[in-house]
Amino acid sequence: MVELEKSRGNDIWRTGQLQQYDLSVSGGMDLVRYFLSGYYENTQGVEPDNSVDKWGMRANVTVTPNDKLDIRGNLGYVSGRTNLSYEAGGGGFTWTTYFARLDRLDGPRRGFYSGTPESYTGTFDQRQGLDRTTAGVTINHRPFARFSHRFTVGFDHTREQDNDIQYHDEKWLDFWSFSDRGYRSTQERNVDYTTVDYAATYQWPVSQELESSTSVGGQFYRGYSELVSAYGEVWPTPGLTSISATTQNRSASQTSVENTTVGMYVQEQLSWQNRLFLTAALRGDDNSAFGVDYDFVTYPKVSAAWVVTEEPFWDYDFANTLKLRGAYGESGQQPDAFVAIRTFSPVAGPNNVGTVTPDNLGNPDLGPERGTEIELGFDAIGTAINLLCDDGHGGSTACDGAPNVYMGRTVPSTEGGFASTLTLFNNIRLFAQLDFKTGFTKLDGNYRVRCYFFSECRENWYPTEFDPAKIAEIQAAGTYAGALLDDADFLKLREVSVSYGVPSEWVSRVGAQRGNITVAARNLYTWTKFMGLEPESTFNGGSRGGSFSLWEQNVLPQLAQLVVTFNVNF
Questions:
Q1: What's the CATH superfamily of 1-204+215-264?
Q2: I want to staple 520 with a disulfide (CB 3.0 to 4.6 A). Which of 54, 183, 497, 525 is the partner?
Q3: What phi and psi values does residue 39 have, to the nearest 5 degrees?
Q4: What residue ranges do the domains of the chain occupy?
Q5: Could you read off the pLDDT tens digit of each residue along the chain, which spans 570 residues?
Q6: What's the rounded Cα separation, in Å, for the pair 419 and 430?
Q7: What 3-state class would DSSP assign to 510?
Q8: What is the SS3 string spanning 21-85?
Q9: Are 482 and 476 contacting, i.e. CB atoms less than 8 angstroms apart?
Q10: In 3-state terms, what secondary structure has residue 328?
């Protein structure tokens, strides 16, 4: 389809351009230091309706009146718009091309399964606007040698607006039945987080061999979110885009949720000869979602670590550092907002008089969901190995939390990478990076759609050529997912780059001190046996994949990139 459309003068996908410009300045004196930065990004995807237009700035200031006090402030702002393409469960260029029907090349769809690429871009519009502001201040005070305390306050505000639009444009009626009407869905979300944290630590020597560190602290956390949404259908004429101009099925809603947590802790740490470490702590929290009759909750923690290689008897060469460790701790997850409260819903009563009916019964004794964890392990030559973790429900689980199911592991058991840098002539740097993930499987959703539902596979037409068990799974139309699973191990050539340090006598002509040019090629090749398009892409999970939690369907693979970067320091 790609080559056929190109011969017709229609490129399904394009070569997108990545552009980002950064500027930063730093300086100051002993009393005041500052860092200011800003950037602008204008990036195009490989589909014409996919792009990012964004800018941001950051400011950091540190004031140090004396060696006992420092004050650090930060401010950040990001604003931009992202235009999104339909894919995965929403259709789009990938859906209509991956499942094209070559027996329909002469029809209005030109062989595409759903709509032509231009009908998607002319009819649908998905976009997200974002504004985010972050600010914080930290005061570190060391009034005397063994005592220090810290006070931090932070604020994070995000405003997000999401739009999903189908325009009223009747020329696309051959592809989309709603094109003579149209709709718009808009959601605006405002999220605020406020945090206040105080911590104090006093360190004192109990003896020449034993050190003690006592810490106390408290936190305040407030989260507030508000969601306003509106929807409307059927514009009476083309060219209209506002929800107020729609004529049918208009709706609007508004919800807000506030959650507040207040917590305190005390912790004691003991260090004996810098080789044996003991820690005991107790934390208490109160949350606004707790029931009115539930008291303050407490969570204990105890841990120990022993650096065996610091002992006099250690005389072995196989490990420079060996530390044994163990820990026991409790934690909790607060309930959802309003669950503990008895609530009522408005309804129309007799004679259409407004009244209420019970909704949530509530629970005045509701508290957090508690969990416990026991961890035993050791660190050797920089490698950490966890032996056992308790899941808090009477059983144990691997400490990485990776689920194991009968169809295979959905989270890689091993991942890593290899990188190498070669410097030539002092100013040319060659770099290459490979990374890999192994020990997991993934469901191929493209095969699922093509063979299970659309009957476009050879297995559908010549079943005797294939394993009867596989054919039975296909004919069961998704009841069984075994035939869709495949080994998703991969090795990817992530990046190859060359950097050139521009001679100082060249950059000095424009008043600069240093200059660097880098040309990088990324996502160049993937070695894998996965039968889908991309072992790194993820679409969906849950019951749609036969309860399999990781699968790939109808998404663009990792795209190859060629990036040229210029850095100039003044």
A1: TonB-dependent receptor, beta-barrel domain (2.40.170.20)
A2: 497
A3: -150, 160
A4: 1-204+215-264, 273-399, 402-570
A5: 889 999 988 899 999 999 999 999 999 999 999 999 999 999 999 999 999 999 999 999 999 999 999 999 999 999 999 999 988 778 899 999 999 988 889 888 999 999 999 999 999 999 999 999 999 999 999 999 899 999 999 999 999 999 999 999 999 998 998 999 999 999 999 999 999 999 999 999 999 899 999 999 999 999 999 999 999 999 999 999 999 999 999 999 999 999 999 999 999 999 999 899 999 999 999 999 899 888 889 999 999 999 988 888 888 776 678 889 999 999 988 888 888 888 888 888 888 888 888 888 888 888 898 999 999 988 875 444 444 444 444 444 444 433 444 566 778 889 999 999 999 998 999 999 999 999 988 888 888 888 888 888 899 999 999 999 888 888 887 666 777 888 999 999 999 999 999 998 888 888 888 999 999 999 999 999 998 888 988 776 544 444 555 778 888 888 999 999 999 988
A6: 11
A7: helix
A8: EEEEEEEECCCEEEEEEEEEEEEECCCCCCEEEEEEEEEEEEEEEECCEEEEEEEEEEEEEEEEC
A9: no
A10: strand
d(CA 40, CA 58): 12
